[in-house]
User: What shape does this take?
Amino acid sequence: MLLSTALVFGLTFWGSSADEERDSVTVAPNGATFAAWSDEGGDADCRWWDGHVQYDTGLCSAFSVTRVSSATIATAVDRANRCASAGTTECVLNGEIGLALPSVFIYDTDLASMRMLIAPRLLALDDSPTSRRPKIKLVDPAGEHANQIFEFNETIKIEYLRTGGRTMAEETLHGASAYCVQALRRSIPETCWDGLD
Assistant: This one.
């Protein structure tokens, strides 16, 4: 998913209501962790989020999130890197790579790779002014879906599960990384986040 600042004026979601009922899409069938890719070692099989659906992840419990294996993380990061490269983007959502675990992948220049943030929870920004809320254009890198406009905070503070040590971490994100986390939270139903936050 490509994110860019848009010079438009409107509400949260251009052309539709923020409260609009959205279809649910199962990420991985039959309780699997990953959806099958047509060629696991070859071309990326990215399914870009169009903003009109919500992902039914199936793994929306603290139990599932805290017990993710290192092999699952390695496969997820590999898929995210491949999709990021194929879509020329620095933001990949779990549903886009067929991962049933609520997580987001943002590009980390220090790692020269996508970094996985598992079940990011929004926290209050402490001792800082209110974050700007620019209009952000969500672009399907494959060009299969119409662009969507969202209003997201420019700066957010999150708590998430680290992939290495299974410990919680807090981080303040700005710009594209902040927009990416907010897109993830919009792409998954509130009922899932209620069970994780």
